[in-house]
Amino acid sequence: MNKLRSFIVSFSAFSVLWFLYFPILIIIWFSFNKESVSSFPIEHYSFDWYVKLFHNKSMIQAVQISFFIAISSTIAALIIGIPSAYALHKYNYFGKSLLLKIILLPITLPGIVTGVAMLSFFPMIGIPLSLTAVLIGHTTFLIAIMITQILARFKKLDPYLEMAAFDLGANPLQAFFKVILPNIKTAIIGAVLLSLVLSMDEIPVTFFLISRENTLPIEIYGMMRRGITPEVNAVATLVFLVSSTAIFMSLKFNKEK
């Protein structure tokens, strides 16, 4: 009976994973198709579409914009997120639980709701639709990612480490930078990698706040409206490989103590 149950669970899990990832494998496979039309079976394999991709000026510009937005918003979220997570962990005050729920709102609300809200609010305070608006929008939900990831590590931290630092003559800043920060560095690295991936892949908020420039996901969306070509498959393959690598590294760092 236990073997049958184990087989059913394993088979169900494998079936779900296959259903989710088989289309991605097809995209990767078709990206090497020499013909301009994706068809099966593939008669000739080639790297031509990857070569054309790296000569596509609009695509290169979209990648540069995406990296700029992802890195800038991640740095801003990191600067705000670390002290915020530390304050949430160290101090108890009225409304703390409510504040935690409010912090989670940007990642629990549908992206389209956040995008429409920012589209309505930003012009009221003088922020036009631009890369600046996109940067602020990305930072908003990345702060929530940073705080939740780092706060989880703070909760696992030995509370006596900071007290020991104080007993040895360290002031609060020295204790934080020389004792606390080194013990949460893996969580910070994991949160940074996860934030970079989420920012690079973000569409709803970007769609509502972008002006003339395109980020990589918006550029890919525009290409797909003209039909799925092997060039789109090549872009999707590279994005999948980079995102998967960053996510696995993030999980690895978050598991380290």
As residue ranges, the low-confidence spans are: none
C-alpha termini separation: 38 Å
Tell me the overall shape: globular
- Average pLDDT taken over every residue: 81
Strand content: under 5%
**Number of H- or I-type helical stretches:** 12
Number of strands: 0
Radius of gyration: 22 Å
User: What fraction, in percent, of the residue positions are helical?
Assistant: over 70%
Structural class: mainly alpha
Q: What would you say about this model in short?
A:
The chain has 257 residues and is an all-alpha fold. It has helices at residues 2-30, 48-54, 57-90, 96-108, 111-121, 131-156, 160-167, 172-183, 185-201, 204-209, 216-224, 230-255.
Describe the structure.
The protein is an all-alpha fold. Helices cover 77% and strands 0% of the residues. The protein is built from twelve helices and no strands. It has helices at residues 2-30, 48-54, 57-90, 96-108, 111-121, 131-156, 160-167, 172-183, 185-201, 204-209, 216-224, 230-255. Helix 2 crosses helix 12 (230-255), helix 6 (131-156) runs antiparallel to helix 9 (185-201) and helix 9 (185-201) packs antiparallel against helix 12. The relative contact order is 0.14.
Topology:
Blueprint: H1 2-30, H2 48-54, H3 57-90, H4 96-108, H5 111-121, H6 131-156, H7 160-167, H8 172-183, H9 185-201, H10 204-209, H11 216-224, H12 230-255
Organism: Flavobacterium soyangense
Subcellular location: Cell membrane
Membrane topology: Multi-pass membrane protein
